[in-house]
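Renewal narrative, Specific Aim 1. Our central claim is that a sequence can be written position by position from structural information alone. The example that follows is taken directly from our test logs and has not been curated for this report. It begins with the C-alpha cells describing the chain, in the order in which they were read.
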C-alpha cells in the first residue's frame, strides 16, 4: 500500500516535528486553544472589583460560577460514558457551596474577588491533595474551574478549545476532557499539542474520533492563529504554509484511502495469509458490547479496575461476577465464532487509583505497590476477583484467559498461574516491567501466554513517567530499547510455541504493528476505533515485509528515524 504520507516521511526543515499518534493527513488553519486568562485583564478587573461590596462581589462570583457549571453540563450532554461523568462532576464542583463559602470568607477578609477565588481554590487543592487517591485526581479540574470562572469574571472567553467556524487544526499546549468533550471531527480536522505523550488524553480522544494527531510538538503554540497547516499523523510533521493545492490533493487522496479502510472486515491476516489476531481493549460491559460489533476476534485487554474507579468499597464476588458476565457475554459462543476474552486482574495504584485497594501516601506510586503487588498484602482481594471471573466464565461459556499486571518475577508468575489454573482458566502475565521481558522465556515455562503492555514497559524501560506531559520523546514505544525488549519477548513466544500479544497503545499504530508482527507478535489488542486501520495495513504487507520492518525499527537510532525507516521498507520500494 502506498499512502500519501510517504511523500512527507522526511519532514521539510520548515516543519515542526512531534510524536505522531493517530495516522492520517489533514490541512486547515491553526486554531489556538487558550490556556490562560490574560494577566492584564485580571489585573484590570481586580482594580475595578476593589470597589465592589462583599454582596456585589459574591453575586458576580455566583453568576460566573453558574455559567461555568452550565458550560460543563452542556458538554456532559454532548458526550457519554466516563467523559460525561467527569463533566457532570466538574459542573458540581464549579457551583459547590463549600467553594462559594470559602470565596465569601476571603472577600470578608478584604481580598479582591480574583484573589478571593484564587485563595479559595488553593485551600481546596490542599484538601484534595491531602485526601489523595480520586480526590487528588480532581485537582486539575479545580484549577480548570478557577481559570474558567476568572475568564467569565473578566469578560474573556473561557480558556480551552474555541468553537471553529471552518475545518481547522486545533493547537494546544495539552487538552483536558473538558476541552475535547463534544469535539466535532468535521470542524476539528487534526489535533496538535506541545505536550502529552502517546497515552495522553489528547491521543486517546483523537484515536476515538479518528482524526490525525501529533503530540509533543515543540513550538506548536508559537504558530500564529490562522496559519494554514498540513498535519501528517504518520510521520509527525506539522508543516506551516504548505503549497495549498498540493496539500489539498494529498489530503483528499488520504481521505479516500481512509474511507477504504472503513470497509475492512477482518479477520486479521497478512497479504500472504499469516493470521494475526486483532482484539479490542474494553473497560466494561457497554464498551465490550460495542466492540463485539466490530471486526475483532475477542478482547485482548479488559481493564477491570476501570469498573471500580469510583467505588469506595470492594464489590462482593457476586457483584463482580455480574460485572464480568456483562463483558464476557458480549463474546460468548452464542454470538458466533471462537472469540475469547483476556481479563486483567485489578491494576490498582499509580495512574489508576482504586479507593479500596490502592495504598495511600506512597512516595513514588508508579514504583510502588500496584497491580499484582497488591495481592501480597491483601491476598483475598485477588482470590475474590478470580472467583468472580471464574463464575462469569462458567455462566457465559466464553473462553476466558486471565492475566496479571505489573509482574516482575518468575515466582510471581508461577504463583498467579497456579491460582488461575486452579479455577480452570488460561493464565498469563503482562510484560510491563523490563525484568519480565528479559525473563520472558522463563515466564513462558509457567504461563500459557504473555501480553506486552507497551505503555508501562516504555515508562519503566525509559525511566519516563507516562503521565509526564514533557517527555513525549521518551514515552514513545518506537524507542529502540523498548522495541528490543518486545523482540526478546516475542522470540521467547516463538521458541515456546505460545501466544505473545501486545495490548498497549503501540498495537494501535498501523506502521508499528507491522514491525511488531515481524518480531513474532501473534495478537494486537487496541481501542476498537483503531482496528480497521491496523487490519487494512497488515493486509497490505507480507511476513517478509514485516520482518524487514522489524529489523529497520530495531536498528534505528531514535523513534523518528525508526518511523522513516519502516515507511521506507513498506512503501519506498
Ligand atoms: C500498558 O501498560 O501498556 C497497558 C496496556 O496497561 P495500562 O495502560 O492499563 O497500564
Ligand atoms: Mg500497564
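The sequence written for that structure reads:
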Amino acid at each position: 500500500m502506498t499512502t500519501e504520507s510517504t511523500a512527507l516521511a522526511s519532514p521539510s526543515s520548515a516543519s515542526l516535528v512531534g510524536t505522531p499518534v493517530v495516522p492520517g493527513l489533514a490541512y486547515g488553519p491553526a486554531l489556538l486553544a487558550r490556556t490562560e486568562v490574560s494577566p492584564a485583564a485580571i489585573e484590570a478587573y481586580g482594580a475595578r472589583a476593589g470597589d465592589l461590596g462583599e454582596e456585589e462581589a459574591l453575586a458576580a462570583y455566583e453568576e460566573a460560577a453558574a455559567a461555568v457549571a452550565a458550560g460543563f453540563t452542556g458538554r456532559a450532554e454532548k458526550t457519554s460514558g466516563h467523559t460525561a461523568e467527569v463533566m457532570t462532576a466538574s459542573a458540581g464542583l464549579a457551583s459547590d457551596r463549600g467553594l462559594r463559602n470559602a470565596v465569601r470568607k476571603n472577600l470578608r477578609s478584604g481580598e479582591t474577588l480574583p484573589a478571593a477565588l484564587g485563595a479559595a481554590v488553593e485551600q481546596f487543592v490542599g484538601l484534595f491533595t491531602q485526601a489523595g487517591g480520586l480526590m487528588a485526581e480532581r485537582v486539575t479540574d479545580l484549577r480548570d474551574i478557577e481559570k474558567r470562572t476568572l475568564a467569565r469574571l473578566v469578560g474573556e472567553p473561557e480558556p480551552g478549545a474555541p468553537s471553529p467556524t471552518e475545518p481547522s487544526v486545533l493547537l494546544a499546549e495539552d487538552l483536558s476532557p473538558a476541552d475535547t468533550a463534544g469535539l466535532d471531527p468535521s470542524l476539528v480536522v487534526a489535533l496538535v499539542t506541545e505536550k502529552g505523550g502517546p497515552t495522553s488524553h489528547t491521543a486517546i480522544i483523537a484515536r476515538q474520533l479518528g482524526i490525525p494527531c501529533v503530540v509533543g510538538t515543540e513550538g506548536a503554540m508559537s504558530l500564529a492563529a490562522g496559519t494554514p497547516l498540513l498535519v501528517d499523523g504518520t510521520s509527525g510533521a506539522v508543516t506551516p504554509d504548505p503549497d495549498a493545492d498540493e496539500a489539498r490533493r494529498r489530503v483528499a487522496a488520504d481521505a479516500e484511502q481512509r474511507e477504504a479502510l472503513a470497509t475492512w472486515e477482518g479477520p486479521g491476516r497478512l497479504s500472504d495469509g499469516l493470521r494475526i489476531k486483532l482484539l479490542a481493549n474494553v473497560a466494561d460491559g457497554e464498551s465490550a458490547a460495542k466492540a463485539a460489533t466490530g471486526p475483532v476476534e475477542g478482547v485482548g485487554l479488559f481493564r477491570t479496575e476501570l469498573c471500580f474507579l469510583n467505588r469506595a468499597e470492594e464489590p462482593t464476588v457476586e457483584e463482580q461476577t455480574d460485572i464480568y458476565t456483562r463483558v464476557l457475554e458480549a463474546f460468548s459462543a452464542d454470538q458466533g465464532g471462537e472469540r475469547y476474552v483476556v481479563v486483567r486482574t485489578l491494576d490498582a495504584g499509580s495512574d489508576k487509583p482504586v479507593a479500596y485497594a490502592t495504598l495511600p501516601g506512597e512516595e513514588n506510586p508508579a514504583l510502588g505497590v500496584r497491580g499484582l503487588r497488591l495481592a501480597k498484602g491483601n491476598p483475598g482481594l485477588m482470590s475474590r476477583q478470580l472467583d468472580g471471573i471464574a463464575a462469569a466464565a462458567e455462566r457465559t461459556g466464553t473462553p476466558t484467559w486471565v492475566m496479571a499486571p505489573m509482574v516482575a518475577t518468575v515466582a510471581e508468575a508461577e504463583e498467579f498461574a497456579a491460582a488461575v489454573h486452579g479455577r480452570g482458566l488460561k493464565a498469563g502475565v503482562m510484560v510491563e516491567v523490563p525484568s519480565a521481558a528479559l525473563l520472558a522465556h522463563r515466564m513462558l515455562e509457567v504461563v500459557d501466554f504473555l501480553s506486552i503492555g507497551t505503555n508501562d514497559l516504555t515508562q519503566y524501560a525509559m525511566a519516563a513517567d507516562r503521565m509526564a506531559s514533557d517527555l513525549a520523546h521518551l514515552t514513545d514505544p518506537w524507542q529502540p530499547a523498548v522495541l528490543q525488549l518486545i523482540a526478546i519477548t516475542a522470540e521467547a513466544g516463538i521458541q515456546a510455541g505460545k501466544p505473545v500479544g501486545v495490548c498497549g497503545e503501540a498495537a494501535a499504530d498501523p506502521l508499528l504493528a507491522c514491525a511488531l508482527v515481524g518480531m513474532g507478535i501473534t495478537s494486537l489488542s487496541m481501542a476498537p476505533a483503531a482496528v480497521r486501520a491496523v487490519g487494512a495495513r497488515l493486509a497490505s504487507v507480507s511476513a517478509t515485509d514485516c520482518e524487514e520492518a522489524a529489523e529497520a525499527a530495531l536498528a534505528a537510532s531514535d523513534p523518528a528515524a525508526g518511523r522513516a525507516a519502516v515507511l521506507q521498507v513498506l512503501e519506498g520500494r
